Amino acid sequence: MSASTKAFTYLIGVCLLVVLGWSVWCPYMRVPDGQRGAGRSVGYRVDVNTADAAELELLPGVGPSIAQNIVKAREGGAVFRGPEDLEAVKFIGPSLVRRVEGWVSYREADGVLGPKKVSVNH
Which of 51, 58, 93, 118 could form a Cys-Cys staple with 85, CB 3.0–4.6 A? Predict the structure, then answer.
């Protein structure tokens, strides 16, 4: 094997290691929690008992379908008193609840919401 072939092989190996390292590192270079897409920031706690779908979508990891599922659960009489109630909504699991925990509140709106517990939609 000539010296130029060895150098080329070494260069390809180094490039592959850089690409592999970058692909492993990139998932950890995320937008901070509370910011989505176009740089919008929540900046305050979102009350899951009163927020509309657009406001819920500002939460990290919450897209249009999950936001709509939360709204539908509320329309069905659900009251969210804590993380375990939020987990009962379709497509919301423990990892998403942990991801949004610093950005949501579960306060009831002016005492209007009744004592009905959320039902499981799985």
Answer: 118
